[in-house]
Amino acid sequence: MRLLLVCLLALVVLAVLAPVLIWSVADQWFAPALWPQALGLRGFRALASSGVGPATVASVAIAAASAGLATALAYPAGRALGLSDFRGKSALRVFLFSPVLFPPMAAALGMHSSFIRLGLADTSFGVVLAHVVPALPYAIGAIAAAFERFDPRYEDVARTLGASRLRVLGTVTLPLVWPGLAVGALFAFLVSWSQYALTLVIGGGVVITLPVLLFGLASGGDLQVTAAACVAFLIPVLLLTPITARALQGTRLGGRG
Amino acid sequence: MSCRLEARELSVVLGKNVIVHPVELSLEAGELHAIVGPSGCGKSTLLRALAGLVAPASGSIWLDGLEVTATPTDRRGVVMVFQDALLFPGMSVLDNVAYAARSTAAPRREVDAEARRLLGRVRLGGLEQRRPDQLSGGERQRVALARALMAKPRVLLLDEPLSALDAGLREELRALIQELQRELQLTTVVVTHDQREAATLGQRVSVMQAGRLLQTAAPMELYRAPATEAVARFLGATNFLPAEIRGGVAQTSLGPLALASGSADGPTTLCIWPQDLEPGPGPNAVEFRVQAVTFNGAEQRVRVAASGIELEAILPRWTALPADRTITLRLPSERLIRIDA
């Protein structure tokens, strides 16, 4: 049953990805042929000369920075949401998720005018800050879920045994909740990785990430280069997910604990 | 290592609820003190306040005459063991026990040796490399105890340390706790909801109800002279008898009952433990009707009634009950507890 499900899932993913993969290496492919007449790397070569290298570096750096910042900011909020029960908790939850509910463009335009005044517009740091906004809800959600299963009395025990707050965090709390932090950081990374509108508005076309480059290429009309860019865009995601899944195996979030 | 502990006017308020009303608690160095009360009476919160895990709303805490009310938990030396051992899941048994000394300057080898020694002391030698989830409940609790001892506590707090265990294991761990406490002369507060456990463990026992300490006394004294009806009821007393004392004699619905000398005149309530009713005629003897008898192997519990008063008596197991279902029981005057409050 489980195997069947996995196969079905793989099939769906492949069905979506296959045309992109084929297009990226199709040097010649005219209708009504079902298979490209000529395979080749023209698309990737064109991509390489269109600045995909620096864009990838920028994307990775911005996504990593956003993930780090979002996780750090989400930690206290996630902890409070996961550990304590208080009146208005569900309302607060909805409020914290509002960046997901509101159209990103509206937020982007508002942020842009503030960022211009703060001198953050057209800078990578500004883009990182902007990306943190939509990434936060996911990070908070993952961390809150980890803290819901965390017994804070572990911290009490460690404190009475003479451990400082910092030592308790390092030796007791983080070892127990890090899977939640990892998932939160991964979500934040992926949210930042696929931002387009925010990057374009706040980065002002100066900060070029992969999605920005990708949209540019897509509007250029060369399907093969666009497909190649899509593949480049997918690689980190495909790499990151299994690595995280492996790291989570045996932990409670990995479902095998 | 052992330390005098005092709490003065200590109260705890969480949100709008007063969890602990101002209490006075005083332990001699090396004393094993039990606090007993129903669940939700605030006894665990009182322990948390002593450990510094919750800030008191008022009052102060003193260790050996020095105030520690504002001293942070990690520098107070008041170590707590919880009902569920709460061993750190990612660490081996040895690392759990050694936790308190890992951050100190002591060389790792010495710390490990001390942790091994303590594990031997709680009879878990050889399990050093196990993970907490590979231990039984009793073993986990003993590791938690060893881990606490590693911190060289000035005061040890045990929050229902036996409640999660089966009867046999409970007895074993209770004996171990008493043994270690005596040997190390550890000032210890143990919290429990079980009256018997409190009496067995504590050199002195405090009865706690609804956030207040009702009475503190040695176990025998507590049972001999409960201060209030609430204390008596909590300890399991069921036999209460309204009375009017005149000239050292109690006038009750059962007739006049002689009291131990020195009873002042006035209205009061008399209480007698079911175990203290004696079969047979004599002074203070009353004829009862037998309502119900249960035999549990160790004793006979008999419900008796006379003049609208119902009492419970626990009689020796081979006591022969008369066929006509009437029985004469004596209420020995030295066993009649006068409760004015």
**Topology as H/E string of chain B?**
EEEHEEEHHHEHEHEEHHEEEEEEEEEE
Give the helix proportion of chain A (percent range).
over 70%
- What share of the residues of chain B does DSSP label as strand, in percent? 25-35%
Fraction of residues in H or I helices of chain B: 10-25%
Q: Point out poorly predicted stretches of chain B.
A: none
Number of strands of chain B: 20
Portion in beta strands of chain A? under 5%
> What sort of overall outline of chain A do the alpha carbons produce when their principal axes are compared?
globular
- Placed side by side, the strands forming the largest sheet of chain B appear as 6-7-8-3-9-10
Largest interface: A-B, 18 and 26 residues
Q: Can you count the helices of chain B?
A: 8
The largest pleated sheet of chain B is described as: 6 strands, mixed
Question: What global shape of chain B is seen?
Answer: elongated
Radius of gyration of chain B: 24 Å
Instruction: State the oligomer.
Output: heterodimer
What is the chain-wise order of helices and strands of chain A? HEEHHHHHHHHHHH
Give the N-to-C terminal Cα separation of chain B. Answer: 40 Å
